[in-house]
Structures are given as C-alpha cells and as structure tokens.
C-alpha cells in the first residue's frame, strides 16, 4: 500500500491535506481530500514562472499556466513585502492562452525578492516560488543620505557600489601614452601559460621577467580574494563560437555561500542574463553540476568585447571575444575524380583554428580531410583528399559569426575503365587564385606595426618617467629663478609652494586629475612643468616651470584654493586660463613685465588682469568672482577692458593710453559700473553694465558724456556731447528719473524708451510743441496667452483707441522697466518687451488703463533638443537580417508636456503587433520584431512640446536574400551546339550587392536540375555549349549575395538547340467504348517519326456543330500510351477526336478525326446495387425503403406487398438510379415482404425486402417456481401477449441470490416458457425475473416469488446415521489480492489473484458491477485457485473497478482493484 504524507498547512481548520507530486519540478501540491470526485482535480502548474535577472527600470513579468477542475484562482505574493500597490504590481489573465501574468513596470531594486504563486480551488492548492534579481543602474541622489547613515553605522559593504575593475569605454579616462591596458592583467590571470606569449605580443609587452613577477603577485592577491567566496576553481575555458551559432565560455567552482550573487560584465558594464534555456534573453548563465556555462545567442559584431564573471565583488574569470573577418574568401573548386581539392582563405587576425563544414556537417582532421594553418595563423586551408562524386556540395569556413562558402564540383573521370576505379591522382585542384602569402604578409606587417607602436609608447613612457624624476631638483631651481620678476613675485612665491613632481609612471600633463590635495603639472622635457589642465582639487592648482623658466599654464584648474599662471621664459606669468577657485585668479607677468590675462577665471576672491609690457594691466576677461574684477592698464596707460566680469564687487574700465578709462563692457556687479576716460578726456561707454549702483556715461573727447545705456536701480542719465548737450539716455531703465539731455540747439534730448517708476515726460519738439494727449480710452486689441522660448525676446502689445496711459502687472504685482523688461508707449500702442525670457518671467500679465483691463498668460519654456553625441549615434543606420529584431533608442532631457512619436517613411508608428514603443522619462525605445525586407526605410523620432518640435532620423536596413533576377529570359542565340540566354538584374538586391549569378539547366523529360556554373554580377548572360541538337532545355537563374540565394528566374518555355523537327501524323483514332461519363479511344503510332523519338501524344476533341478543337492534355504532359479515356464529356453530346505525336521539338501534325461518338451508356438489364433485405421499424414511425439500381434505358418501377399491389397511402418516389417506398405512419399490419420490380427493353429484375413493424413487448405473465431434484429449480411463466404477434420474440431470465446480492443474466434467447436453474444451494434465498425481448428491446420484468423457504425444499433424510468424520469445509478466502494496473491503450494485460475454499468456490469477475464471465473480450481462467483474466488489447472502456467474488455454501470472499488506461 502507498503511504501518504498528511499536512495541515494551506488547508482549512480541521482539514487534513495530502502532499502530491507534480509533473513540473519545483511545484508543491496540497490535496485537501483523500479521494477526489470523478472528473474533478486539484490545481497544478503546466508552466511555472521563470527566474529573472533584469536591469532597473525595465519591464519585469512572470507568466504561469495552471490547470484544475473547478478552475483555480491564482494569487501572487512576495516573501519580504506587499504586492497590493497597483502602480507597481499588476496581475492579469488571458482567457485565450490561459496565461496568468504578474507584471512590474519600471522595476526598482527594492522589488528584488522571492515571489510565490498560489493556485487554489476547493480540492487543493499548488504553490511555486520564483526569484527576481534587479541590476541597479547608476548612483541615485536620494540614496546619498541613506549611504551616509550606513557609513556612520560602519556598514561599508552596502555603500560600495558594484563596479567592474575594467572601466566602461564611456567612462574610461584618456590613457596616458604608454600606459598598459587593465585588460592585459585580467586576461593573463585567466589564461593558460601557453597563451602568455600571444597576449603579451598583442598588448606590446616585451619584458617577460617583469611581467611574470608582477603577475604572480597579482595572482596571489586574487586567489586570497576568491577564497572568501568560492573553492575548487578550475577548468576555465575561454569564449568560443559553437556550431549552433552561439558563443559560450565555461568554468567550474563551488560557492561557499549558495546565496552569493553572480554578475556578468561586458567591457566593464553589467549585463542582464537569465538562468533558463527557454527564455528569450540574449545572455544566459546555466549551472550544470559544478560547471557554470555562460552563453549568448543572435551574435552580432557589437557583441565583441571583454567579458568577466564576478562572484560578489571578486573577479573569477575574464575572456576576450574578438571578431575576425575574411580578407580572402574560399572560391569554387572544380576537381576531377580521385583528385585532391583545396579551399584557401586569409583572415584579418591570427586564429589557431577555423571551423570547417562540408554539406552542413562539421569537418575534422583525418583520413579524408587535411586542415592546414600557416605559421602566422592567417592562412587556413582545407584539403579534401581523393575526391569522389559524392563529395560534391557546398563547403564553408566559419570564424566566429563570419563565414564564407563555395561549391566543390567533382567531375567523373571519363577515361576510367568501366567497372573499375580510376587511378589516384597526385594533383591538387582549386585554391583562391590570388597570392595568399602576399596578402598575409601585408596583414602581418600591419599587425606588427601596431605592436611596435605600442612598444614604443611604453618605452617612451618609461624614459619620460625617469627623466621626470631626474629633473625634479632643477625644476624647483627654475621656479625660484622665475620669481625674480618684481611684477610676478607674489605669484612665483605661491607657485613654489604648490609645485610638485609628477607621481605617475609616465610624466606629462596632469590632465583632469582629481585629488583632495594638490594638482600641478609635471616637469616637461624642457624643464617646464606640464599644464595643470582641468585639475580639480581641494588644494591649489598652478602651472609648472617650463625650460625657459616660465611657469606652465594653470589651464582650467578648478580648486578650492588658488589658481594662477606661472612665469614664462620672458619672466611673465602664464595665463591663468579658466581657473575656477575659491581663492584668487590673476594673470602672471608677461615678458614685457605685464601680468598675464586672468582669462575666464572664476573665483570667490579677486580676478584682475596683470600688467602688460607697456605697463597696462591685462584684460580681466570673463572673470567671475565674488570679489572685484577690473581691467589692467594697457601700454598707453589705460586700464584693460573689464569685459564681461561678473562680480559682487566693482567692475570698472581701466585707463587707456590717452588717459581714458576702458569700457566697462557688460560687467554685471552689485557695485558700480562706469566708463573710463578716453584719450580725449571723455569717459568710456558704460555699455550694458547692469548694477545695483549707478551707471553713467563717461565724457567723450568733445567733453560730452558717453551713452549710459546701462540698466540700474539707481540713476541713468546721458552725458554731455561735444556741443555741450548731454548724451542720450538711451534705453536706460531706472527706478528714479529718466530725462533727455540738452542737444546742441539747446533743446532737451528725447527721453527715448526710458521706463521708470518715477517720472516720464515727453521732451519739447523742435517747434516747442508737446506730444498729443489722445481721446476717450478704449482697448481695440488686448492680450492673449503666449508661449515664449527661454533666452529669446517676447513682446506683448495692447492697442488703445486713444492715446492714454496704462500700467502693467504680473501676477498682481506692478511692473516697471528694468531687470530685462522694457515698457514702451507709442501714441495709443503700449508694449511690454522681455529681452531674454527666463522661467521667472512666466505668469499672468495684466494691462490696466483706467477702468479698462486685459490680461494674458505667458509661459516660458524650451524647444526639445537632442544631445549631439546621442544624435550622432542615433543617425547611424541599424542593419539587421530578415527575421531579426531592430531596436532604436534615443535619450533626451525629461520635460513636461513632451510628446514622443516614431515614424517610418513619414508614417507614424503605433504600439502593437510587431511594433513595441517604450517611453521612459529620459529616453524612448522602438523595437521592430521579425523585420522583413520591406521594413527597410527611414526611421524618425519626433519630440514635440508646446514650444516646438525637434526630429532625429536614422535608417533601418534589413538584409535579405536578393529578389529573383528580372525576366523574361531572352534567347540571344540557339544553334545545334550553343544556347545563349540573357536576363536582367533583380529589382531588389536584398540590401547588399549581388556577387554572382548561378545557372542551372533541366533537359526536357527529365526531373533533375544540373548546375552549369556561375557568372559575376556584372555579367547577365550565359552561353551553354554542352547541348544536343534537337533537344529542349529549361534554364533557371539565381542571384546570390552574402545573405544567400534568391528565388529562381525560370525560362517560360523550353529552348531547343537548333531547328525544330516535328513528327508525322498518327493513325485515325478509333472509339472503343462509350458511356455517359467516358469515351475510350485508341490509335496507331505515326508511320514517319522523322528520325526523332516520340515521347508521347496530344489528344484534341471537337463538339458537334462547333469549329473549335480543344486540347485534352498539355504538350509538356504527353500521353505515353496509344489509348486514352476521355472523361471531359457531357452526357448525350457527340464528339470527334484527333491525335498529334510529340517529340523533343513539340507536337507534330494532327491525325484525321475519328468518327462521331455519343457520350451515353450502353443498353443494360436492370440490376440493384447493395440493397438491404430486412428492416425493423417501431410502430408509429415512418418506413423508408431505398433501393438503388442501374439500367439503360431507364426502367419501369413497380412495388408489391406480399405479391399484391400496394395500398394507395403508401408513397413511391422514383429518381434517377433510385426508388424509394415511404409509409408515413406504420402499424403492425404493415409488416410484410415488399417486392420491387424494374423492367426495361433489355430485361427485368426483382428484389424482396422484409419490413417488420413492431413495438416494445409486453411483460410475461406470473412466474412460478418448483424444485424437482436437489440443487435444481424449474422456473415457468405465462407467455407475453405479444408472443403470437411477433415470431422474433424471446425471453431472458435473470437471477438474484442473498449471497451476492446482484442480478445476473442466467438465460437468454429462450423461445420456451420454462427454464431450469442449477446450483441452487440451501440457506440462500433466490429471486428470478423474466423479460420478453424482441427487435425493439426488453419488456418490463415479471418477478418470481422468493425461493429458499423450508416449505419449498425437498427434505433430505439422514437415515438415522450420525457422522463423526472431520470436516475440511471452509468459506472462501483471498490469498493474493488483485494489484493496481495502468497499462497504455492497445497493450495486453494480465490480472491475477489467488482464492481458496472448500467446497471449491464459484468465482465471478465484475467490471463496474457488471459480470464479465461470459464476455468474449476477456479470457478468464481458474486453475487450482489461481484466478486469471487476460485482455489482448486494452481499450478505453476497459478502465474501471474490477472485482473478484468467490462464493461457496459456507460464505463468500471478494477483492477489487482499479484499472487506469493511459493514452
């Protein structure tokens, strides 16, 4: 017996569960009840969810398919969290595919967990677990506080972000000259010793002693790190291409902690992978025992790279996946039988072994094939030895995902003796036809040159490092010498304190060094320090001293300290450049003693220009400082321009040579901006100075002040011009007063567009009149909502019907001119102009004039834009093969109200079908599945918001086989020995150029197509010289490109070599026989076949009274015999026929026509087809007797009933070939023998059908029982009333006893009214039932009285003898019970058990409570108590419960089992 495990988890209170095993591994099933009802089942999984490793932000989902009756409900949960948030977790069900899906859009790292799926119904539940791993991408600002807290708690492991030791290309810093790639050491630590030389040569390393010493040190450190996570690391196999087109690498190890995470990297970037084979992800990591196998499919050129496998943060294995190309491909080889064939190729990089294939089977070195590789491993050869005709086919060479193939054509040796093998040849056929050695040498020279360049870089780097160390002391001396210059003494002193020697192996530019200390340029060969460049430091950044004693440029040094230029050879300081510092940035002194330009120095201190040779200060440039920015003095004594200096201090122009101050330019300051004095004593223009102080124009040469033009919160006024009048105030915006100056004629200057919250008045015109005041106010053109682009001007205009004043408000606050806003009024037109829109300018603007007002909203935003690098990357065409997926991705800056649309050839693409569009906040992706050649075209992405739209375009190129060449095929020439054909190139070349055309030929009458050869793509014609005069040939042409062969272009008709020779006419056709569906013909061959064999005939027909001959078979489908059955005829129509002989040239002359033949049947005597002679019908139902017949001409049909005419209510329906007798509502009196009689001019036929109309019989009369002898009972009954009406009625007797308590049939087909029952035992009660049965079924039973009362038994006398003998009688018992069987359908089955008892028990077999002892489908035996049952072929209905019952006079015993039939 089977043991069941009882469980209580997952069941209701007080309910016991039973563990069940699922067919799907990993599924736990709990059944609530021990025995399931018939047709019901507990839940189970037919497809369980698959573990998933996915990148953060992607779309993650699990799928499951469950079964069960009743239908289970599916619930998802996770171990450490809740799944009730519908924004993060969504459960879906597809009734069509019966799939339950659990979706997680935009998956987050905190969703990584073990998930559970429960399927429940009332009979049980099924549960399965699945793991989700999420790869975290990038550093999140929101995690910074959390990481700081973890640092405070000394939890450093979580703070460290996972990164590969090999930096991704996008983040890789600019390599210094001669620096060794980190990949070099990673590859060495995972490589065999035999590969060390190759790897060193590849990376240009020649010092093997130094390499081995350092490698051993690194290996010891790495092994110590690995020992913390794994043990028994072995069997490392580098990546390689498999025969199925996938790439894989392997290694073996044991994890110390099974929960340790395994990561995969490509070029330093983590890549997602799956652990299941059936998943559709590109990368897969499978575990087989101790072995870990990484594989990737759908290989593309971009899959080449450096792959690493890490456990936690320790590298276990590194391998480099390279793609090589074929410089010279293998070419077609034509070889004679028993000759060697050679295929040769040259590859672009050394490779120890190529994969060779012959007729799609991999080839290995052996007796048949030689595989040769040159010393430089660039030339590879395959030698097919002792070629035979069976070796003919396509051979291919594969190097990674690159491959090339060519035909091997083997021609039979016609000179060999018949029946004997030709002699082995010593020659070789084939080869590439080019100088492979020369191509390989050129490639080797190219590779050697690259290695030498790498070696020179390493050598130069080491020499530079040595020189830098030697020059450290002279450097310091040079720095102090440069400090003698008085103008730059302070700067030199600072540089002396900050300059340091180079600390790297290779001395040179510090570049963009990042340090918490000090960054300075190293010493160059000339003794000067290298540029500090963009050094970022919390200390100090300065330029070093050059050979000429000058300090190198500080460049764009960013520091929290100080950035200054060094002294050049002429004693001047170098430019401070764009130094950004929290200290001070100033230019050094140039050769002429002037300080160098401060450039764009950004500092929280002071930025000033140095003094130039003429004593003037250098330009302060665009110095941005929280201190003071001023121009230096130029040679003429003037100060340099302050430029665009932005400072919280003061910006002023210096004095020029003529004594004037330099222009303050666009200086923005919280202090004061003023123009300097020019040579003529006037002040320089204040320009566009924006200040919180005062802006005024300086005095020009003529004594006038320069235009103020400045925007200030103070006062803006025009200066005095040469004629003594003040200068125009221009566009000065002030919170005080704006007035025009006095012109030369004494009048005041126009106030212009001055906008002020103070006083605004019109000046006096030349004639002394004032401006018009206007009339009644009214708004004729108001404001409306507008969109403005950030950084661009915007203008709002209100038009009044009269000249009147008004005020502007923004979000309820009054507006005035200033701060980038100009408010103007021109007569009745009021304008508000924003010179450069900013985000703060957005809001509700309102114009009020008296009681009138109008408002409009201005919204400031940007037109979407793409990054130039992303745009360049997107513009590159995407090239895929037919059937592959094409993916496009475009990053962009997140914006509100941004609409992203994708277009193909100008038509917008929608998500659905084969198009998948994913929109993320910072990028959008387009996926085109299963691309077709027709998908080639322009792909465009459009970003659109209310401010505008921007587009980026790319190209999708789908590579496919070319289309068939363009037809029709033209015949250029045909002679007895040559056929020349011509065609046109294909319309579609499949995306890559056609390389050649392949021509095949078929001789007419043959099914085999033979390849004739191929021609280059430039040639679209072919001459076939191997033809036989008079024969016809068909040709087909294929176009070939790197993707494969096109469909063929075939000639429309066969082409004959030479002129046509047609056969003479055959003999006149003769009509052999006719019928309404067929006419049989025969004829004789032609007397003159013109010497050309006849291959068949063509038959034509012509209907009477028509002139058109119709061919019954095509010329290319000749009739090979000289007789033919014409089945395409119409009954009753007359036809004549003619025949033409067909040879290689076509159909010859037609024969004379045959005699007219009519399509009709010949006269025949009536005969009946497969009639039924007996029919039983229930009384009251209709009777239908159908008889089919054949006769010509159609016969006369007569029906008789018992040889008498039928009654009028009986219907007879006659149709062609069939007669039907119908009795609508039958009675018992309709039972009779019906005769059908068919008669025509040829003869007649008869057939009898017995029709019996009956009903279910009535039950028999009372049953009587009588015992005549011991053990036998006579059963008698009164006949059924239907016995006299139905001569086919008989009786069935069933018996029931108190021991078995089952009814069983003991007699069947009894035509008498008595039955004698045997084996009637004492002590048992018996009952009998008698049924009447006929063709319609059983009657109700007649029940007998109970037999077994003492009064009914025959007394047995003992004659007064008492026996003292021992009795061996015992009731039946089961020694060996029946076993459970589950045989497949159609198999044989033995079922046995052992029974004992005395007297010998009577054994009965039951199937589903029905006795099967008398069933012929079961062979039942009982031998000495061993009861057996044999089934020859198990059927579906043989399944069920089988029971064996053993009965004797002392009792009974039984056993049972179940039989389940499997499909």
Helix content: under 10%
Unreliable stretches (pLDDT < 50, length at least 5) are 1-15, 139-162, 476-774
CA-atom Rg in angstroms: 54 Å
User: Span between N and C termini?
Assistant: 25 Å
Description:
- There is one protein chain.
- This protein has 1463 residues and is mainly beta.
- It is 8% helix and 38% strand.
- The strands form 22 sheets. A 10-stranded parallel β-sheet has the order 30-32-34-36-38-40-42-44-46-48, with no helix packed on it. A 9-stranded parallel β-sheet has the order 31-33-35-37-39-41-43-45-47, with helices on one face. Strands 1, 2, 3, 5, 7, 10 and 11 form a 7-stranded mixed β-sheet that branches.
- Helix 7 (472-482) runs antiparallel to helix 8.
- It is extended.
Write the topology of this structure:
Blueprint: E1 6-7, E2 17-21, E3 28-31, E4 41-47, E5 52-55, E6 60-69, E7 73-78, E8 90-94, E9 99-104, E10 113-121, E11 124-135, H1 144-152, H2 156-159, H3 182-190, H4 196-203, H5 208-226, E12 230-241, E13 247-255, E14 262-266, E15 269-270, E16 283-288, E17 291-296, E18 305-311, E19 314-321, E20 326-328, E21 333-336, E22 340-347, E23 355-358, E24 361-362, E25 369-373, E26 379-384, E27 393-399, E28 402-411, E29 428-430, H6 436-470, H7 472-482, H8 489-498, E30 514-515, E31 519-520, E32 536-537, E33 541-542, E34 558-559, E35 563-564, E36 580-581, E37 585-586, E38 602-603, E39 607-608, E40 624-625, E41 629-630, E42 646-647, E43 651-652, E44 668-669, E45 673-674, E46 690-691, E47 695-696, E48 711-712, E49 779-781, E50 786-789, E51 794-800, E52 807-810, E53 813-814, E54 821-826, E55 829-834, E56 843-849, E57 852-861, H9 868-875, E58 878-881, E59 886-891, E60 899-904, E61 907-908, E62 915-919, E63 923-928, E64 937-945, E65 948-959, E66 966-974, E67 979-984, E68 996-1003, E69 1010-1016, E70 1021-1024, E71 1032-1041, ...
Parallel strand pairs: 5-11, 21-28, 22-29, 30-32, 31-33, 32-34, 33-35, 34-36, 35-37, 36-38, 37-39, 38-40, 39-41, 40-42, 41-43, 42-44, 43-45, 44-46, 45-47, 46-48, 50-57, 58-65, 84-91
Antiparallel strand pairs: 1-2, 2-3, 3-11, 4-6, 6-9, 7-10, 8-9, 10-11, 12-13, 13-17, 14-15, 14-18, 16-17, 18-19, 20-22, 22-26, 23-24, 23-27, 25-26, 27-28, 49-51, 51-55, 52-53, 52-56, 54-55, 56-57, 59-63, 60-61, 60-64, 62-63, 64-65, 66-67, 67-70, 68-69, 68-71, 71-72, 71-73, 71-74, 75-76, 76-79, ...
Helix pairs in contact: 7-8
């Amino acid at each position: 017996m089977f043991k069941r495990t009882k469980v209580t988890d997952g069941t209701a209170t007080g309910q016991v569960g039973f563990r069940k095993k699922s067919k799907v591994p990993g599924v736990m099933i709990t059944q609530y009840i021990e025995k399931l009802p018939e047709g019901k089942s507990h839940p189970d999984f037919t497809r369980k969810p698959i573990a998933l490793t996915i990148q953060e932000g992607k779309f993650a989902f699990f799928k499951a398919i469950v079964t069960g009756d009743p239908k289970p409900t599916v619930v998802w949960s996770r171990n450490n969290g809740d799944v009730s948030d519908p924004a993060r977790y969504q459960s879906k069900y597809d009734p069509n595919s019966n799939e339950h899906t659990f979706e997680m859009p935009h998956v987050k790292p905190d969703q990584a967990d073990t998930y559970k799926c429960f399927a429940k119904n009332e009979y049980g539940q099924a549960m399965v677990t699945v793991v989700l791993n999420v790869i975290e991408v990038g550093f999140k600002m929101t995690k910074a506080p959390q990481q700081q807290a973890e640092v405070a708690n000394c939890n450093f492991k979580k703070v460290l972000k996972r990164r590969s030791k090999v930096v991704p290309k996008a983040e890789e810093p600019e390599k210094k000259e001669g620096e060794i790639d980190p990949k070099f050491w990673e590859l060495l630590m995972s490589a065999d010793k035999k590969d060390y030389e190759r790897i060193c040569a590849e990376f240009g390393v020649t010092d093997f002693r130094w390499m081995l010493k350092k490698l051993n040190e690194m290996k010891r450190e790495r092994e110590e790190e690995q020992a913390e996570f794994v043990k028994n690391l072995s069997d490392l196999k580098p990546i390689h291409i498999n025969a199925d087109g996938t790439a894989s690498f392997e290694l073996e190890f044991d994890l110390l902690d099974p929960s340790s995470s395994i990561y995969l990297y490509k070029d330093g970037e983590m890549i997602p992978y799956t652990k299941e084979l059936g998943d559709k992800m590109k990368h897969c990591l499978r575990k087989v025992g101790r072995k870990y196998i990484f594989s990737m499919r759908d290989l593309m050129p971009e899959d080449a790279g450096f792959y690493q496998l890490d456990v936690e943060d320790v590298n276990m294995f590194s391998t480099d996946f390279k793609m090589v190309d074929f410089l010279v491909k293998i070419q077609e080889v034509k070889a004679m039988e028993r000759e060697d064939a050679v295929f040769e190729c040259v590859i672009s990089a050394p490779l120890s072994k190529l994969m060779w294939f012959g007729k799609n089977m991999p080839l290995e070195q052996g007796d048949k094939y030689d595989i040769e590789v040159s010393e430089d491993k660039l030339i590879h050869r395959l030698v097919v030895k002792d070629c035979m005709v069976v070796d003919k086919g396509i051979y291919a060479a594969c190097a990674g995902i690159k491959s090339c193939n060519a035909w091997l054509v083997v021609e039979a040796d016609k000179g060999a003796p018949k029946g004997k093998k030709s002699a082995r040849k010593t020659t070789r056929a084939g080869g590439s036809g080019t100088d492979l050695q020369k191509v390989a040498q050129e490639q080797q020279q190219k590779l050697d040159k690259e290695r030498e360049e790498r070696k020179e870089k390493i050598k130069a780097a080491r020499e530079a490092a040595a020189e830098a160390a030697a020059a450290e002391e002279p450097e310091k001396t040079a720095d102090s010498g440069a400090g003698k210059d008085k103008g730059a003494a302070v700067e030199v002193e600072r540089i002396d304190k900050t300059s340091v020697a180079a600390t790297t192996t290779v001395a040179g530019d510090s570049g963009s060094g990042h340090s918490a200390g000090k960054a300075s340029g190293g010493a160059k060969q000339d003794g000067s320090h290298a540029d500090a460049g963009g050094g970022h430091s919390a200390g100090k950044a300065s330029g070093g001293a050059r050979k000429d004693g000058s300090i190198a440029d500080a460049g764009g040094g960013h520091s929290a300290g100080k950035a200054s230029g060094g002294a050049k050879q002429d004693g001047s300081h170098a430019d401070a450049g764009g130094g950004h510092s929290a200290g001070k940035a100033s230019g050094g002194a140039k050769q002429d003693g002037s300080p160098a330009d401060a450039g764009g120095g950004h500092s929280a201190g002071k930025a000033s220009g140095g003094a130039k040779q003429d004593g003037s200060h250098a330009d302060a440039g665009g110095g941005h400082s929280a201190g003071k920015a001023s121009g230096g003095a130029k040679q003429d004594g003037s100060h340099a321009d302050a430029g665009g200096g932005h400072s919280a201090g003061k910006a002023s122009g210096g004095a020029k040579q003529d004594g004037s101050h330099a222009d303050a330019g666009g200086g923005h300051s919280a202090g004061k901006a003023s123009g300097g004095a020019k040579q003529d004593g006037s002040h320089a223009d204040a320009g566009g100075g924006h200040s919180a102080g005062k802006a005024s124009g300086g005095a020009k040469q003529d004594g006038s002040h320069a235009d103020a033009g400045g925007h200030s919160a103070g006062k803006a006024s025009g200066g005095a011009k040469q004629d003594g009048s003040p200068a125009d105030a221009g566009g000065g915006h002030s919170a005080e007063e704006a007035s025009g100056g006095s012109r030369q004629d004494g009048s005041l200057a126009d106030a212009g567009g001055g906008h002020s919250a103070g006083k605004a008045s019109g000046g006096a015109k030349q004639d002394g009149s004032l401006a018009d005041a206007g009339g009644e106010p009214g708004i004729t053109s108001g404001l409306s909502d507008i969109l403005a682009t950030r950084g661009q001007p915007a203008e709002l205009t209100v038009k009044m019907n009269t000249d009147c004043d008004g005020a502007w408000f923004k979000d309820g606050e009054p507006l005035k001119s200033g701060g980038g806003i100009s408010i103007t009024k021109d007569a009745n037109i009021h304008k508000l102009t924003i010179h450069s829109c900013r985000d703060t300018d957005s809001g509700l603007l309102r114009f009020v004039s008296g009681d009138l007002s109008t408002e409009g909203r201005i919204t400031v935003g940007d037109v979407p834009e793409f990054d130039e690098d992303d745009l360049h990357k997107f513009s590159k065409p995407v090239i895929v093969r037919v059937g592959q997926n094409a993916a496009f991705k475009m990053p962009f800056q997140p914006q509100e109200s941004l609409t992203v649309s994708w277009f193909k050839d100008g038509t917008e693409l929608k998500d659905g079908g084969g198009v998948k569009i994913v929109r993320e906040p910072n990028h959008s992706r387009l996926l085109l599945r299963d691309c077709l050649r027709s998908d080639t075209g322009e792909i465009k992405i459009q970003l659109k918001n209310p401010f505008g739209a921007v587009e980026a375009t790319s190209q999708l190129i789908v590579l496919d086989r070319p289309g068939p060449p363009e037809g029709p095929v033209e015949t250029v020439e045909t002679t007895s020995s040559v056929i020349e054909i011509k065609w046109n190139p294909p319309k579609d070349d499949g995306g890559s150029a056609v390389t050649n055309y392949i021509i095949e030929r078929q001789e007419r009458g043959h099914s085999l197509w033979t390849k004739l050869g191929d021609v280059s793509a430039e040639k679209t014609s072919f001459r076939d010289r191997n033809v036989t005069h008079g024969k016809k040939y068909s040709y087909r042409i294929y176009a070939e490109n790197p993707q494969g062969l096109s469909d063929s272009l075939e000639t429309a008709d066969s082409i004959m070599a030479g002129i046509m020779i047609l056969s003479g006419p055959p003999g006149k056709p003769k009509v052999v026989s006719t019928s309404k569906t067929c006419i049989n013909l025969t004829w004789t061959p032609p007397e003159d076949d013109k010497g050309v064999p006849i291959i068949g005939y063509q038959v034509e027909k012509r209907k009477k009274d028509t002139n058109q001959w119709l061919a019954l078979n095509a010329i290319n489908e000749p009739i090979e015999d000289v007789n033919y059955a014409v089945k395409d005829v119409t009954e009753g129509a007359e036809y004549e026929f003619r025949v033409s002989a067909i040879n290689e040239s076509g159909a010859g002359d037609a024969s004379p026509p045959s005699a007219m033949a009519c399509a009709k049947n010949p006269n025949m005597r009536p005969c009946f087809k497969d009639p039924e002679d007996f029919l039983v019908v229930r009384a009251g139902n209709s009777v239908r007797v159908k008889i089919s017949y054949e006769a010509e001409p159609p016969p006369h049909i007569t029906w008789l009933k018992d040889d008498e005419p039928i009654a009028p209510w009986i219907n007879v329906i006659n149709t062609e070939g069939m007669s039907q007798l119908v009795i609508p509502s039958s009675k018992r009196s309709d039972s009779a023998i019906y005769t059908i009689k068919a008669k025509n001019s040829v003869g007649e036929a008869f057939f009898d059908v017995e029709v019996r109309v009956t009903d279910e019989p009535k039950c028999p009369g009372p049953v009587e029982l009588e015992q005549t002898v011991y053990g036998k009972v006579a059963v008698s009954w009164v006949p059924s009333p239907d016995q006299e009406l139905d001569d086919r009625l008989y009786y069935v007797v069933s018996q029931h006893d108190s021991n078995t308590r089952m009814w069983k049939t003991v007699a069947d087909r009894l035509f008498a009214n008595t039955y004698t029952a045997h084996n009637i035992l004492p002590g048992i009660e018996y009952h009998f039932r008698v049924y009447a049965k006929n063709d319609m079924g059983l009657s109700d039973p007649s029940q007998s009285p109970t037999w077994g009362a003492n009064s009914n038994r025959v007394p047995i006398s003992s004659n007064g003898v008492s026996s003292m003998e021992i009795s061996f009688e015992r009731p039946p018992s089961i020694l060996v019970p029946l076993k459970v069987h589950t045989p497949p359908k159609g198999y044989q089955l033995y079922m046995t058990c052992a029974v004992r008892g005395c007297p010998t028990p009577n054994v009965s077999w039951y199937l589903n409570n029905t006795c099967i002892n008398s069933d012929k489908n079961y062979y039942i035996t009982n031998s000495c108590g061993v009861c057996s049952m044999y089934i020859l072929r198990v059927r579906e209905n043989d399944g069920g419960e089988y029971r064996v019952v053993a009965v004797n006079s002392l009792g009974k015993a039984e056993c049972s089992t179940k039989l389940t039939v499997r499909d």
